[in-house]
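Fold sample X.
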Amino acid sequence: MTEHGTSAGVPRWVKVSGLIAAVLALLVVAVMLINGGEHGPGRHMSSGLSTPLVDVDERGRQLG
């Protein structure tokens, strides 16, 4: 005879934890897609830089 209340399967808390992790992962992907991929170091730079990133002369030519 089998005992009642015992199970050889995966515990319920593991299933629930996996489901929550999967939902959170899908939520993160959805937010990244909706955001338009605006992430990375370029996001932290202003669009109107006051100083150039390279040295240029008065004609706009790159120096040395």
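Fold sample Y, listed below.
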Amino acid sequence: MVGRVDTLVHDPVRPAGVFEVITTTPDAVEAATAPAPGLLGAHIHATPDGERAVVIAEWSDATARTAVAPTPLPRSLIVLL
């Protein structure tokens, strides 16, 4: 049981970060997680059947994300923090 929920407070000096959630095939994971300026981390989760992978990429800001690919990848969700 969660006894307390903390709120997220952003540093007013730094721009907000970006999380991108992508559903892809396992063979496309490497392209979705290739090192790039502004990519802080990528978390990969495979489905139990091994047919799909969910990639959660954390970017420093929206500018860094769009510099790599100006449009969202197919089947992706972008969340600004």
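Sample Y note: The mean pLDDT is 77.
Also: The chain has two helices and four strands.
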